[in-house]
Amino acid sequence: MFRAAHFSLGVLSLFALTSPVPADFASIDPFRSSAGPGPSTITLPFAEDFEEPRWHAGSAAQNGWQNAVSPDMPYISGASFARTGSQSLRVEDDPRIGPGFPGALYLSPLFVGAPGPRSVSARVYISNLGGADYFISPQSVALNLACARVKFAGRDPNGDGTPGDIEILNDSNGPAPGGIAFVPTSRNYAPGQERDVRIDFVGNNQIKYYYGGELIFTGSTLFNDATGLTCNGPQLDQLAIADNQAQFFTIGNYADYDNIAVTPEPASATLVLLATAAAIRNYGSGRIRQR
């Protein structure tokens, strides 16, 4: 649709050389649509696989999800990496948006139900290195607060000579003022390969981040210094996907997302299952004793 290939290579190269890299969105502010949150809600837990018949190729503004900046970006693509099914959510260059944040912003409906710690997961495929930064950001509209933010950096923000850094928005000071910054993790993303990404809110103001099944960072929840509030998981009520529309730095740069899910945090889910199993055992043994 809106690939960097719209430009000639010469113009593209000149644009890449003369255009600044958009700054990090290192803020506790949630991503927002100028139109405000949509009226739609989605009941937790949920999973979206972007497949027919619920999802159709074209603009991803379907089923209550919002294309908050451009009506055509992101979109549902049939040229998908998806291991299951044939469609995924695609973010790429849209010349009508221009470089900067929040880029091709995509917002979920507001979440309802299932209180308690939560886990956000998705399969992510980024075509190549050197292009845009892509973001997954669970957030709380009610608290006006980002709950977590993962950045897949197209270039090399930590300066180690290897592009593709995965960075986490972290609050190193906890409830004390300041300390909000993107920090490096132990991993770079794998270009041209899909990987599972998971963000677990585990309680006690702590978040665990996984990439390809590997724990890559354990950090703090984000605190609003003015109010003292934080998002520990139950307050999470929306998911945002964003970029900085810097695909012009390299040819053919895009990101695909699939199997997006918000579920109980795995440890909590395990405890619920164990408690349920224990209750069943106790109920069964009680019936035996009464005979």
Number of domains: 1
CATH topology, by name, is Jelly Rolls
Query: Mean pLDDT, nearest integer?
Result: 84
Query: How many angstroms does the end-to-end distance come to?
Result: 70 Å
Number of strands: 19
Shape: globular
Residues in helices, as a percent range: 10-25%
Largest sheet: 9 strands, antiparallel
Beta-strand percentage? 25-35%
In N-to-C order, the SSE pattern is: HEEEEEEEEEEEEEEEEEEEH
Quickly give the structural class. mainly beta
Number of helices: 2
Radius of gyration: 20 Å
CATH architecture: Sandwich
What's the CATH C level?
Mainly Beta
Q: What can you see in these coordinates?
A:
The protein is mainly β and 291 residues long. The protein has one domain: Jelly Rolls (Sandwich), CATH 2.60.120.560. The chain contains two helices and 19 strands. It has helices at residues 9-18, 266-290, and strands at residues 41-43, 46-48, 58-59, 66-67, 75-77, 88-91, 106-107, 110-112, 118-126, 134-140, 145-146, 150-152, 165-171, 180-188, 194-203, 206-211, 214-220, 238-243, 255-264. The strands form three sheets. Strands 2, 3, 5, 6, 9, 15, 16, 17 and 19 form a nine-stranded antiparallel β-sheet that branches. Strands 4, 7, 10, 11, 12, 13, 14 and 18 form an eight-stranded antiparallel β-sheet that branches. β13 (165-171) and β14 form a beta hairpin. The longest helix has 25 residues, at 266-290. It is globular and about 45 Å long. It starts with 8 loop residues before the first helix and ends with a helix. Residues 1-22 and 268-291 have low confidence and may be disordered.
